[in-house]
Amino acid sequence: SAFPSSSHREQLVCEIGNFYFERGDFKKAKDYFDIAFSEYPASPAAEEIAFKRAEAYLKSGDTEKGMKFLEEAKLAYPASPRIKDAEFMMVAYFKYPSPEEKIDKLIHYIIENPDSSRIPDAVMLLEDEIDKSKEVEKYFNEITTILRLDLFRKDTTSYYYIKYFTTRAKGSYL
Predict the structure, then answer these.
(1) Nearest Cα to 84, choosing from 45, 113, 114, 56?
(2) ∠ CA(7), CA(12), CA(14), 5° rounding?
(3) Which is deepest, 22, 33, 86, 132, by most CB within 10 Å?
């Protein structure tokens, strides 16, 4: 690679990867994460890099490699706090045969991971997928029923986002 050897090289490679990742240049980020991942597998940052590398691949459009790397990261770090994010990314980026299948997976993710930092993204994606679906009213009613049955704990992030979504959707869809 293009960097000279140095005691700070590992940190520098990771920081450059993070720099590009945070700025949305996922193609460059994945290049640096690949270097960090292959040259420094025992790095203290290896767990973070494994998950970010997978996400950079997904966000750069290489879904097949991104999903593969995400599975590998989940297997390598099963106790990672990043597992919930990884599960969301798998739902978000998997190519389902129909919007209805993705909707069902998103609803399941939201119910199972009520405090995930990805809940706002999951709800936005849910709304997009419901818009694509030919069964908008069915899903609106299903989500309203889930709220009525108290399947969401009221002190969770998902409860507030789903409540907002259904209140907003009531005027748009029905």
Answers:
(1) 113
(2) 120
(3) 33
pLDDT recorded at residue 174: 42
By C-alpha distance, which of 25, 53, 26 is closest to 39?
A: 53
Q: Residues 85, 90, 96, 101: is their CA dihedral positive or negative?
A: negative
How far apart CA 20 and CA 110 sit, in angstroms, is: 29
Separation of alpha carbons 133 and 100, rounded Å: 6
Rounded Cα distance between 11 and 120, Å, is 31
Could you report how far apart the first and last alpha carbons of the chain are, in Å?
A: 57
Kindly report the average pLDDT of the chain as a whole number: 82
- The b/e string for 86-114 (b: 16+ C-beta within 10 A; e otherwise) is bbbbbbbbeeeeebbebbbbbbebbeebb
Q: Are the CB atoms for 93 and 66 separated by under 8 Å?
A: yes
Closest to 35 measured CA to CA, from 59, 3, 58, 7: 3
Express each pLDDT in 20-60 by its tens digit.
999 999 999 999 999 999 998 888 889 999 999 999 999 99
Unique residue bearing structure tokens 């936005």: 124
Return the residue matching tokens 């209805």: 100
